[in-house]
Amino acid sequence: MRVLLVENDEQVSTAIKAALTKQLYTVDIAIDGQAGWELVEAIEYDLILLAVMLPKIDGIQFCKRLRNRGHSTLVMMITSKSAIADRVLGLDSGADDYIVKPIALAELEARIRALFRRKTAAISTILRWGKLQLDCHTREVLYDQTRLDLTSKEFALLERLLEGRVYSQSDLVDHLWSLDEDPRKEEAVRALIKRLRQKLKAIYAEELIETVYGQGYRLNPELREPIRSLSVKSEVSATLKPYRVQQQPQVLVVLSDQHLLDQIIQESDLYSIQVTGAPTSAIAQIRLQHQRFALIVLDCDLVLPESSIQNTPVLLLKRLNPECEQNWSAQIRGSLYYPITPTELLKASLDRLEPSQPLMQRVMIVDDDPMVVRLIKGILEDCSIQVNAITNPLRLWEELESFAPDLVILDVKLPHIDGLRLCQAIREDVRWSWLPVLFLTGLHNLDIIREIFAVGADDYVSKPIVPAELIERVSKRLTRMQHIRHQADVDPLTNLPTQQQARGMLRQLLHLAHQNQQVLCFAVLRLNDLQTLNQQHGYRYGNQVLQQIATSLRKSFRIEDVIARWSGSEFVVGTYNLTQGEVGDWLAQMLESLHQTELRLPMGSIAITFRAAVAEYPKDGVDLPSLYQAAIATLEQTKADMIDRVLPAGWQPDATDRDVILLHRPSTFAEEMVRALLTRGYRIRWLQDGRSGLEELQAEGASKKVLLLEAQLPKLNGITLLQRLKKQKFLQTTPVILLATQPAEAEMARNFGCFDYVIMPCAIPLLMQSVCKALDSIR
């Protein structure tokens, strides 16, 4: 973890850095606000420790500027002012926490651990049950550190059982099998349970799944974590509740006119509407399965089944001639007619949106003192926060399930079980470990505060309660949770979906491809040597390059394609119903275009190269992990190359099925052709005059290669050379593409049996398509 300490007191900064370095943090120090700001712009920090009183830019202004520019880095204020008003001012500026001088280093360390714990726990996707661990991201399952190789159905079954409930056979069928599979219920579930038990038995975990006679199946509660020995009800069946905040209305626009759809999405921010586009019915159905919308704008040329629309209001977009094919009317809220501008469509959508009530934030209080409960409830309800108070902590689990709070306030001293043990139980439960916890305490000694943070609390509020401080503490925790949830879905640097968000969207596309027996391509794109780029030219420049890649990917691919930042310098693209060659060519064109708009530094432009591999479903893999591994295996073979590479999965450097001979005199265009061919993984041989080229071809004999032949070659022109190759039956196995300068040359080449021709000058992508077709003809 990297920490920035902005503090002008050398004695304080030295002590803090020494303490944090022992805890294995990397600490940078800035002695004034301006120096700190320059570091923030250049380096991505996990935490900023920020003194309030600073020269040049004070801590309050620093924090406000940070938040105004969209940075969500954790910030802890360091202040020598202990007055409530000063603390509130710091939290209001955007800080996540504060600590008062003189600093107790043990408390500082505990507060930092609490901040990081909140950030990571909120997006955790690792489910545990005793020795069993299931990672929803990597689809890896471990039992007592032994890996389990499971099929997709077995994995889905185990993931379902980890929710902690008893599931009947019909419940499992509904969750594990799609409607078109229609398994025989009893036989399918019993067979699946039997196979999974056999795999568990092989690693001495045969008792993990138990049968509850007359009800179904569940995981053995006796094999869960020891924390369950607490006399607290643990059967919480609620899944993770999303953070509830008032958002812009979500509108799905299903429209075949791609140009108009792009304009609508671009202008939607002006109307406080969040528009999701779908150019086909199939893509619209995926969006509807994945997300809920306040309104659907539907092109009448596209048909959606009523079952996918459910109760969502629909605004129809009609043409004057064709009749609308939709035969349901209950959801229709009106009609619009072509031609229409984006502004007219968005205004009409805004008029049809039903006014929605803001979703209230929810806070649960666990305290046996009715006076304290009444006070807190009154303070929070005045701020439009819904409050549920319970005096018996043993009812916590059932109330969590029914109320689904966004934050819990616990008293340290409670009957039956103290608040510290209760907080620990919340943190151990994978379904509620993300939940922010604040403590109420009238005890102010350092040991109690250290223990509060040690069990997983986020913060504490001292008694007697000060309303302004309580409101600030609660609201900051709720706002912080909103930022974390957003970060789990959207990469803040590139504004692309994160790996976590993209996985769900890609699985939907895979399901659609399987259902309709269509191809799906999964491409992995890497920026070569980002670390060196950052070290030599600064993080700011590295970030600019990553942002430029994201922008270029958005422009190059379709709205319905999934584009995400997977990790670090790695991006992925998922496309439905595009071939491997088409996706590879789009990526290569995108990189060529990116190089034409070089980012420049004061010392001039620098060389940036990329590697990409495209895997195709079902040829290279049948699920996300296997497609990813197929692409990565190909990338690993080219990591020493210092040129752009866009390759099909399974490509081998010594393969002979991608050989191209170029017969062309030296020129800028010839160099561009060679570069484009090498980028796409072709093996290229460049011969530069007709006579020597003919001699080499005759010596080598006919072979399964593609010949790119310039018509106006020196020494022996291309048409004459083509005639001689035909007489030697060379063209029977070697397709020739003539690079002609006039139609008459192209016509003569066709008569001699030339595979294809292009009229020069031509676009490189057009030539690459012709090369791809020629190679396909001889495979």
Sequence-ordered SSE layout with sheet pairings:
Layout: E1 2-6, H1 10-22, E2 26-30, H2 33-42, E3 47-51, H3 59-68, E4 74-79, H4 84-92, E5 97-100, H5 105-121, E6 126-129, E7 132-135, E8 140-143, E9 146-148, H6 152-161, H7 169-176, H8 185-201, E10 209-212, E11 216-219, E12 250-254, H9 258-267, E13 274-278, H10 281-290, E14 295-299, H11 306-309, E15 314-318, E16 332-337, H12 342-352, E17 361-366, H13 370-381, E18 385-390, H14 396-403, E19 407-411, H15 419-428, E20 437-441, H16 446-454, E21 459-462, H17 467-489, H18 499-516, E22 520-527, H19 530-537, H20 539-556, E23 562-567, E24 570-576, H21 580-596, E25 600-601, E26 604-605, E27 610-617, H22 624-636, E28 645-648, E29 659-663, H23 668-679, E30 683-687, H24 690-700, E31 706-710, H25 718-727, E32 736-740, H26 743-751, E33 756-759, H27 764-778
Parallel strand pairs: 1-2, 1-3, 3-4, 4-5, 12-13, 12-14, 14-15, 15-16, 17-18, 17-19, 19-20, 20-21, 27-28, 29-30, 29-31, 31-32, 32-33
Antiparallel strand pairs: 6-7, 7-8, 8-9, 10-11, 22-24, 22-27, 23-24, 25-26
Helix pairs in contact: 4-17, 5-16, 7-8, 9-12, 10-18, 19-20, 20-21
Describe the structure.
The chain has 779 residues and is α/β, with parallel strands linked by helices. Helices cover 41% and strands 21% of the residues. It is built from 27 helices and 33 strands. It has a 5-stranded parallel β-sheet with strand order 2-1-3-4-5, with helices on both faces. Strands 13-12-14-15-16 form a 5-stranded parallel β-sheet, sandwiched between helices. A 5-stranded parallel β-sheet has the order 18-17-19-20-21, with helices on both faces. Helix 3 links the parallel strand 3 (47-51) and strand 4 (74-79). It starts with a strand and ends with a helix.
